[in-house]
């Protein structure tokens, strides 16, 4: 069920250039299930900034009723978020949307992420591993300074890193790595910039894949029609990223 | 006991609070969060004759204390609204105000005729003011004579009272209000969004794919309040006021300025529970202010 | 080196930044804080033929990301401005844009004729849009024909180029802009404030003694930007843009939308150093964006 | 000279019902001179709330470069101010306006204050005392819970308190006390609600008096004409509270 809760900030860390890891606690965590779902965060009690910010759930700890978000503090709202300290409260609406269908993977899955699309793949990797699925992580970042969670992913499976400037791992995009890897997986899951999602679908036309999309949002729950995309189904068909997604099977969304 | 009820043409409201059109879909999403029967009424998303896909994305952008939207009247079309959305809403004890949009007078007439037959539709809200459609919409709301004739045409076919939704993007909103009054409108809803724009300073490109969008939220409240005040002073029509309402004192302001009921739009996105929260706080706030009923408060700014 | 200069009729600006009329008095107060010669220009407070006392207080009220004002054109009158305020400003190396207001065409003509003779007045800004005066002012700005004739009359007597300041409280701002273009205007300044209102929820009384006031500040920026974009697309006149500018990226936005220079109003109250701060930051920001001059940036949103 | 400075919060205390005492530090204090001057405070970096708040200087400590404000946290801006803690910074513009002319008092002065008009009288009392002037303090508050600085004023001279509800001192307004006191002073200084200032002027038509006025402000420095009052001088004469005042001789301002 979707809840709105003033959650307690437990920890906030700067983990890479402009990247923060924020852990909060509250009973809303009881409602969380699928990796790839997101929350809609109100960063201040003021109406400036007005809108909530959609942030993916990066990892869930049901026992301690905590979950973690990883975000880039770039614009006005996320910068305010980055000022929160342990003990502060933030207003969280969630969990929202439909996440990655972990039950679709059979033996081995590719998890392909770019930049701030990487965070939801971490909870996904954890859940897949606990189901006995082997995960391979192909992660793209701007530069060495922007990389986060490399060790954490490595602990869960093979991890390949690409950086645009070549300062760490393969130089270029995740697709450069994909070209080198055997297609020995049954399912892929991907989250990142739209161009990356396009490239990944292009690379594996025969595979079962699931992609997480981004759109500017208003309500975050399906009521305002801000976040729609057309689909391949028909001329008049469309989906809402916030409530029908953000995760969709490959080949469905026209982005 | 504080009397929270409001009676205006077609509507016996248990309280004066309702979500504004386009900010609440057809109710399904918010129904996951709370019982919609608490609401005074629901203004559903604009309905057009045909299914509409609306504008390309991005469709929303944030501004200082406000937001721009250019959804472009996306909706499943008259048939689907009549056969599926409205029947679904019947499970709640809440009157529906159907928001009607179109490109030609014939469009408006067709939607108004059909949708007003639904048992739970107690009033129509004729959206002559949407800034996000290229044809029709906007001119209906800016020319008094055109607005009057459209009102007449819709009144002729509607089975329920007709409220006209005014655009704030006009030189003289009172002249439009008077024109729709002449045309036989039963009430007015106001205001729709102000036409605005945001650019990305990095690229110079408009953030909204449609280039311009409608500005809503707390930023526009002073303009909305001024217009409600002017129109309520110069026409006899009941007004459902809106524009930037986020809390109970905003509601007090709109009622004071002359609105009989108040709609909440953008604030639903910020706090999805805003409508029931305001409804919960209203009786105590009225009591603090020394009023026993909503009715007493309506238009008090004119009586000072 | 980034070229910060801008050349528009009557004005050779060392940079495109100037304080907006009414938000900077006649410069004396801000001169205590920094050297006014840094500014691109100064738009001084509206000047009328006679001394004006303006409206009763309270004259200002805060709103979400904005403020309302109803100063009501208070000013010491033409004689005092000509004999005392303008000569005092001569100590600074900065062109003055004199804001001219009145109730009748004759008023405007008289002020324009006299004030345009001052050596440091390089342009006039004809305020046909002040929402806070009861007679005259507002109608001049909302009727294209009236605006055109006023422009003609003022042009006839002015010794310097004439900019007309447009009101945003109109259905079709482009039609007003075109009318003043026909009337011979040398440029446009826009926007003035949006007409708004605030009530005290405790009493229901308007907070501003004048009941309504003009809304300014970040809240109105989306409306201002949209109007500048539209007018710059449909007329040939240079535009000095304003409305909610608080930082360097707001300036970038207005230039991108088609303004040749940018005025800063309300933000001076929040940060009295805002103009020199923006001027300081502009060259670097231009450099970051890959531009060598202000000129290149002007209107880039239309060229995408 | 007027300066704008990000000053450091040294201390914030709740000293009466809704009343806070805020001490800040910075070189702006070097510019402070007259009691009765005020500062214009920006309570947040956001533009919501937009305008600065005018607050009187309640006491000045030049040596430690600190000054104190006492304010009622009632509306949106002052409530945000009340959340500031030691170590935070606030943006202060000041000192502004013209204060009480201490040199006008000869031997004995009445200091008459009401509610949040009381704070500037404290620095005034200190300065008068240090010039050897005897000060009598007549202070009005809503109720016992709203009283502040009673002991501090007592330490500087005779202090009489009135409360509207009679919960402490004389029941009623400061004028009730004034009626009882001998007119054995040469100068009075007053700050408080306009009705009180009127009553005080009415009570002492023959005395030299100085009154501090309040008006809604925009700029705070004299440029915007928000804060004007007409004067008794002529039909067209007016003053600006922010830059010509807030303190004016009795008999000048039409309020
Ligand atoms: C389903 C979903 C999950 C996301 N998960 C993450 C995550 O885990 N970590 C992370 O860093 N980012 C994530 N994002 C992107 C994140 O929402 C934006 O980076 C953030 O909203 C930008 O806010 P701001 O205050 O920094 O920028 P501002 O420029 O102040 O934002 C202005 C407005 O634009 C919206 N906006 C700006 N950029 C984006 C964007 N890329 N996507 C959607 N809206 C945007 C904001 O929400 C806000 O309404 C996610 C987006 C979506 C849709
Ligand atoms: C010269 C001067 C000195 C002052 N000194 C003090 C002081 O030492 N301690 C103190 O508690 N108060 C003082 N005040 C009053 C103080 O400025 C207001 O209480 C405060 O601005 C209210 O802000 P808010 O955020 O609580 O209210 P809001 O309702 O959020 O304020 C909205 C707007 O109205 C203005 N406003 C509201 N009330 C007043 C008022 N009474 N006077 C002027 N503007 C107002 C605010 O500044 C703001 O612009 C002084 C006022 C002036 C003019
Ligand atoms: C996302 C969005 C969609 C809207 N869609 C409609 C619509 O379909 N029909 C309509 O009459 N008004 C529509 N509006 C306008 C609102 O109903 C309301 O008039 C306006 O937003 C002002 O109120 P607010 O400031 O409370 O949002 C929409 C507003 C928003 C923000
Ligand atoms: C207090 C105040 C006084 C103003 N006085 C005038 C004036 O005398 N003449 C005029 O043309 N505009 C006047 N304006 C309008 C501004 O010049 C400007 O057009 C408007 O405020 C929008 O810009 P901003 O959002 O940067 O303030 C005034 C604005 C304010 C806030
Ligand atoms: S954000 Fe409102 S429908 Fe998706
Ligand atoms: S507040 Fe601007 S002149 Fe006094």
Termini distance of chain B? Answer: 25 Å
**DSSP strand tally of chain A:** 17
Q: Which descriptor suits the 3D outline of chain B?
A: globular
Specify the structural class of chain B. alpha/beta
Amount of beta strand of chain A: 35-45%
Provide the structure class of chain A: alpha/beta
The description of the largest β-sheet of chain A is: 7 strands, antiparallel
Most extensive chain-chain interface: B-C, 46 and 46 residues
| Fraction of residues in H or I helices of chain A | 10-25%
Widest beta sheet: strand line-up of chain B: 3-14-13-10-9-8-7-4
Averaged pLDDT of chain B, please?
95
Low-confidence stretches of chain A: none
InterPro entries (chains B, C): Aldolase_TIM (IPR013785), DHO_dehydrogenase (IPR050074), DHOD_1B (IPR033888), Dihydroorotate_DH_1 (IPR024920), Dihydroorotate_DH_1_2 (IPR012135), Dihydroorotate_DH_cat (IPR005720), Dihydroorotate_DH_CS (IPR001295), Dihydroorotate_DH_I (IPR049622)
Subunit structure (chains B, C): Heterotetramer of 2 PyrK and 2 PyrD type B subunits.
Pathway (chains B, C): Pyrimidine metabolism; UMP biosynthesis via de novo pathway; orotate from (S)-dihydroorotate (NAD(+) route): step 1/1
EC number (chains B, C): 1.3.-.-
